[in-house]
Write a sequence for this structure.
């Protein structure tokens, strides 16, 4: 039904890779046991082994120990565990949390929930490309600060934060540092031996892995109150039956992302940006020209509603998104575009293109043609012009 | 590798039904979009539609409205949302929670975590078949009681609680009632129009559905603080990207369980119980003879370690479990067997058999033969005899 359709929405990343699927398949039907202790029966032991092998493979990518990585149901849960776990463990020490203004909802709304419980939250301004200035962060840290949560890369505009400087600052000030790497994991290198980050949120759904599985890196010694209570799984840090096919799929998906793929994405990204910005008048790049994730392009078309562009591109066989597609209230202006100094019009006229393993240069060129034509037509009839 | 092996462990239920898998498959590869609002693009709309159809089908089974059912990552998360959500919403009204002593860890340890935060928890005794006496519950409810959480059926011994009487009592006393129906959903009828239960925990993994997906019924009007913060998914009650293949798989799995299947399970259950209890000396049934889930048999073999039986049956090609297999600390005595008045020896000698769609009467007979032989051999060498 959707065969000729071109996905340049986040769904492009959500599409499961066939090789991931093939790797998961035996764990649906053949080795479907619950991982048991070593005294358990054979298939349970095999399930446990494959779970631990998957964990080890993901931990290795981060330069971490296996025991520092837990599987979760996705990035939302990972960020809930990180933020609520740290404040649960450190609430006697302090009650101040710092984040950037442009965090994803999983971090932003978790912090807002904590604010209602009495924690003080500082939402740091970002510059017009979306970057937090480490000097501004430095001035915000007080003796009451217990947690800094600043994303690795942005969900809408792809801007990459200087998490090395941020991490070193947090380390110096003895504050726990969490970063949401949902949109950067395997796209931008992150080695915990080189970058002093304490907690990292990750997800399989952004790298052609399965839905419903994510992960959290927890540096050894990080104070963290258990959030999901129940059984003693995941080193007693996250209760819940292990999702073996999910874990296997996540590890395989992570393995399949290569440096070459990221280079190819960057090339397509730059080509799409260049074509649109040069061919469509009054188009503005959101985010930074080079300091952005390889898969992200975000452009505002002045005097046109992003919703209209989305709809017209859909009719022409292209999926793109406007605002944040992570939730279903897309008529609110994007807090990210507002955060980088855009007004409501700029936010409403923004369109995000997400490239993936399945995107070709031909797709990109066809999309650029369609965008130019759609925007031109819409402007002719636009009451905003 | 495990072809000739017979699974009478919980893994038997965890094995995905091929028909569930076939139903899920298109949502991995073809309709993999994120569900968007109605203004989104075509595939997103289709994803949203299939999510809502899956929700509606599961809600219908309970006699509920679609808006009363949310998808979660599994039973552990569902019970965390239920317990923590209710106390979060009602903590000004009271601080007392009541549960049975034999709840699963997802409820038991969540309550223990709440106890550490200052809530008072009453752990109700059960009779020697595992049942809570509604009169005892009645006497435990005080003006400070805000929540009663009593399971529908037990995870280890299959005992079914009188949730109708319990629900009516809670309704009369104006106390929220949560039931963990992980092991009874689709095995024992539960209609929310007839039974006044406010919250029901469910899981796909006990009915040949996929791992990593569960659900929570929330009766309209039930006070519930949001627990997983982030986006506005699931009627703004549970943040996190929707797991479309999981939701589709859960609905299909629920659809596939039939009355006939449950009758066939009961027949095999009774046959297995009868054979073992009559053929193996000093074997004691744990739980109730008839008032138990169709898939559960739990027997203690005196003077033998359950761990030894498990190991020897594994070598003969049968998977069974001892204690609670939901977590990896199986050397602790089962709190369920202790709860029904058993001592440590009885708990350590207990073996649980779980029957499933893939179990045959021939499997049951072969298992009964093997159990009789293994127990006899072990007793010959047992230091406990």
């Amino acid at each position: 039904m959707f065969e000729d359709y071109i996905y340049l929405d986040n769904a492009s990343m959500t599409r499961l890779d066939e090789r991931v699927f093939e790797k998961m398949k035996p764990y649906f039907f053949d080795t479907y046991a619950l991982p048991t202790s070593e005294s358990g029966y054979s298939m349970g032991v095999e399930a446990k082994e494959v779970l631990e092998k998957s964990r080890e493979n993901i931990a290795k990518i981060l330069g971490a120990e296996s025991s520092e990585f837990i599987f979760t149901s996705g990035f939302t849960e990972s960020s809930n565990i990180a933020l609520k776990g740290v404040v649960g463990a450190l609430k006697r020490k302090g009650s101040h949390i710092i984040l950037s203004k442009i965090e994803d909802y999983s971090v932003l709304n978790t912090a807002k929930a904590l604010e209602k419980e009495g924690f003080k939250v500082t939402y740091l301004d970002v510059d017009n490309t979306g970057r937090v200035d480490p000097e501004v962060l430095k001035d915000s840290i007080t003796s009451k600060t217990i947690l800094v949560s600043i994303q690795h890369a942005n969900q809408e505009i792809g801007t990459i934060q200087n998490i090395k400087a941020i991490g070193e600052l947090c380390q110096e000030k003895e504050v726990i540092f969490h970063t949401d790497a949902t949109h950067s994991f395997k796209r931008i290198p992150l080695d915990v031996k080189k970058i002093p980050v304490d907690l990292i949120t990750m997800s399989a759904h952004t790298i052609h892995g399965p839905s419903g599985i994510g992960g959290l890196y927890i540096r050894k010694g990080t104070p963290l109150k258990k959030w999901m209570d129940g059984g003693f799984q995941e080193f007693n840090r996250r209760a819940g039956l292990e999702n073996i096919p999910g874990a296997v799929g996540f590890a395989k998906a992570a393995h399949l992302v290569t440096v070459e793929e990221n280079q190819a994405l960057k090339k397509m990204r730059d080509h799409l940006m260049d074509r649109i910005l040069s061919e469509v008048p009054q188009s503005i790049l959101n985010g930074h020209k080079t300091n952005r994730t390889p898969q992200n392009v975000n452009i505002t078309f002045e005097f046109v509603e992003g919703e209209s562009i989305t709809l017209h591109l859909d009719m022409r066989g292209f999926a793109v998104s406007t605002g944040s597609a992570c939730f279903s209230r897309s008529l609110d202006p994007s807090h990210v575009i507002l955060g980088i100094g855009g007004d409501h019009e700029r936010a409403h006229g923004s369109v995000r293109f997400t490239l993936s393993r399945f995107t070709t240069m031909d797709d990109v060129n066809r999309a650029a043609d369609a965008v130019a034509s759609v925007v031109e037509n819409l402007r002719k009839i636009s009451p905003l012009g």
